Amino acid sequence: MMTPDIRDYCRKDFDALATLYQRGKGDEFRFEPGFPARFPVIPLPLDETRLKAFSESEALVAEAEEGLAGAIYWQTSRIMGLLVDPKARGRGIGQTLMAAALAQMGKAVTLDVVASNAPAIRLYESLSFQHAGQRDGFYQGVAVRVLRMKRLHGHPWPYRPAPADA
Questions:
Q1: In this structure, what is the dihedral angle of CA atoms 158, 104, 64, 91, given to the nearest 10 degrees?
Q2: What is the pLDDT of residue 139?
Q3: What is the mean pLDDT of residues 121-138?
Q4: Which residues are within 8 A (CB) of 33 and not within 5 positions of it... i.e. 6 or more apart?
């Protein structure tokens, strides 16, 4: 397994990013009832809300042999999105992107995640994120339960809990 090259996003990446978004965005809802029919993905260039969030964010991309394999984007101390190509999952791309972004952010960081997305929650917990609340959210008008997660600055990465007898 090759480690992906992580670099800053640049404008020439947009078409590949839009393709990655189309392939991977809906997967965050894959554990929700009615998936995929209830959660159609609007292409990124046509999704005004998410396009605006992305355009106002800092971003990194992960390149693998087969092209753009992932992306992460954030604003100040809030991760706005993490995308990993479904064909590239299980190769550590999400974890590598998160670690690179956290190194640049350097402060308490928050993110929201669909509460049914257990694989994403496990990834964030492995990076020392903790549950900080929940709320009802909406995607394209469909209600979903959303968890807020927070990672405090200075938390070790990767997080290793103290032994039970310590």
A1: 20
A2: 86
A3: 95
A4: none
d(Cα 9, Cα 12) in Å, to the nearest integer? Answer: 8
For residues 20 and 160, what is the distance between their CA atoms, to the nearest angstrom?
32
Domain boundaries, the chain: 5-151
Residue-wise pLDDT tens digits, 82-102: 999 999 988 999 999 999 999
Residue from 49, 96, 58 nearest 77 by CA: 58
Rounded-to-integer distance, Cα 93 and Cα 83, Å: 9
Q: What is the pLDDT of residue 161?
A: 39
Q: What's the pLDDT at 28? A: 92
Which residue type occupies 44?
A: L
Residues 6+ apart with CB under 8 A from 23: 85, 86, 87
DSSP state of 3: P
Fold classification of 5-151 (topology level): Aminopeptidase (3.40.630)
